[in-house]
Write a structure and sequence with these properties.
Layout (H helix, E strand, L loop, with lengths): L1 E3 L3 H12 L6 E5 L6 H9 L6 E5 L9 H12 L4 E5 L3 E3 L3 H9 L4 E5 L1 E2 L4 H11 L8 H6 L7 E5 H6 L12 H8 L4 E4 L4 E3 L5 H9 L2 H4 L4 H20 L3 H17 L13 H4 L1 H8 L4 E2 L2 E2 L2
Parallel strand pairs: 1-2, 2-3, 6-9, 7-10
Antiparallel strand pairs: 4-8, 5-10, 6-8, 11-12
Protein name: Glycosyl transferase
Pfam families: Glycos_transf_2
GO molecular function: transferase activity
């Protein structure tokens, strides 16, 4: 199930991979897109793919976040016993669905972390730094305990999903994936870098807008924690180089290199680690400001 708002190009690239997975259904919801999302989805999926359905999205109700509303509509349309939500910018490798189903034999609810791909040096400095950040602080059992989840790939048994209230129960949450995982009695976060690839933000501006919409929520909706995080990362990864402490600078660089290697991602973005906290400053500022929008919709 793919919630899609202004995702024409991503669908053109990634929908064929989903159609090859062998699922009972591949559902794309056109969330009132302002581009050619619906036309591209029909063009790619509407021919010779009986499993494909394009669902026209309904207007966003009051107190709902856009993605949550789209996922809720998809879930109510789906027929299968397993519900798999994935973003349009995630590329599924052949056989990835089999890996998800194997995991669901052990856990009724799981989320996978894709390999993060980057398009240019600015996003290469930022996206892996942000997405791999928690792995620099907490081992996997603690991430599991905190119910850290990733909505880019989220799979759950149908009966459990509706028993938890589905996306309706977290309709106003920016971090809907984490909120839903925290409602589940059993949950598993898995490393999916061999099965999934995601290219979240093609440009630096989109990264600032995209991360800016949820950075405050990531930092427990507390501006003091948000600003403390900004200072911490500058002090740990950037300032040692400016003050001639190459030993500390190299330690920070080595730590991020290790995270990249363990996650199975490209190693070279870790060389840009000293720049990442500086490039993140506009994101921290945007997170603190009111009136944020994402894909033409208010996020507050």
């Amino acid at each position: 199930m793919v919630p899609a708002r202004n995702e024409a190009e991503n669908l053109r690239q990634n929908l064929p991979r989903l159609l090859r997975q062998g699922a009972l259904e591949v559902l794309v919801l056109d969330d009132l897109s302002e581009d050619e999302t619906a036309r591209v989805a029909e063009e790619v999926g509407g021919k010779n793919h009986p499993s494909f359905r394009l669902i026209p999205g309904k207007p966003l109700p009051k107190n709902w976040k856009g993605k949550n509303w789209a996922c809720w509509q998809l879930a109510k349309e789906a027929k299968g016993e397993i519900l798999v939500f994935t973003d349009a910018d995630v590329a599924w490798e052949d056989g990835a669905l089999g890996g998800i189903l194997a995991g669901l034999r052990k856990w009724p609810f799981l989320s996978a972390l894709p390999r993060q791909e980057v398009a240019n040096p600015l996003t290469a400095a930022m996206v892996p730094f942000v997405m791999g950040g928690l792995f620099s602080f907490l081992p996997h059992p603690y991430l599991q305990r905190l119910r850290v989840a990733n909505g880019q790939v989220l799979a759950i048994r149908r009966d459990l999903y509706f028993a938890l209230g589905g996306h309706e129960a977290v309709k106003g949450e920016i971090l809907e994936d984490v909120a839903l995982a925290r409602k589940a009695p059993t949950y598993r976060l898995v490393l999916g870098t061999a099965l999934f690839r995601a290219r979240m933000y093609p440009t630096y501006r989109e990264a600032v807008e995209g991360f800016g919409k949820n950075f405050l929520d990531i930092h427990l909706k507390n501006p003091a924690i948000l600003l403390g995080s900004a200072f911490y990362h500058l002090a740990l990864y950037t300032l040692p180089w400016l003050f001639g402490r190459l030993d500390l600078g190299l330690l920070g660089l080595g730590e991020r290199l290790l995270v990249q290697v363990v996650l199975g991602e490209a190693w070279w973005p870790s060389l840009l680690t000293p720049l990442a906290p500086v490039l993140l400053l506009p994101i921290y500022l945007r997170a603190l400001l009111p009136g944020k929008k994402w894909k033409g919709r208010p996020t507050m």
